[in-house]
Amino acid sequence: MSCDKGKYKNKTLCESFKNAFNGICEALKSERNLIIHVTCTAVVIAAGFIFGIDFIRWICLTLVIGIVFVSEMLNTAIEKLTDMVTTEYCEQAGRVKDIGAAAVLVSAVIAVIAGILIFWQPVIDFFINRF
User: Which fold has domain 15-130?
Assistant: First the structure.
């Protein structure tokens, strides 16, 4: 398989952003797990407002959410590239996909742990002040 390298080169900064947004849209359309991450993100952001987390906690939350999204999109790219390279079953290709999926799992576990640490005290304070 050969590709015309010039055809895929962004000519302008605006085109680069357009292609990046197209990539986000493609990932959202094709990846069920990314939709799950978006849903969880919406819930967590709402919880941040409800429990009144402070600025530092927002920074931490933003970073862990970003890490999960980046790892999910990189995993999607790895899967699509692997499928493009080989259309038949290949044990090595399976391992590559498994490692990409493992990166997403690790980032999601880290995000859950960070979420617990971020929300622990604000949730306790919220309920102590309410009752």
Answer: Helix Hairpins (1.10.287)
Report the catalytic residues.
72
DSSP alpha helix (H) spans, 10-90: 13-30, 32-50, 55-85
pLDDT in tens, 64-103: 999 999 999 999 999 999 999 988 888 999 999 999 999 9
Residue 4 to residues 1, 15, 19, Cα–Cα distance (Å)? 10, 18, 17
Residue keyed to tokens 């259309």 = 87
Provide the sign of the torsion angle of the four alpha carbons 19, 2, 30, 62, taken in this order.
negative
Per the document, the length of the chain is 131
The model's pTM is 0.84
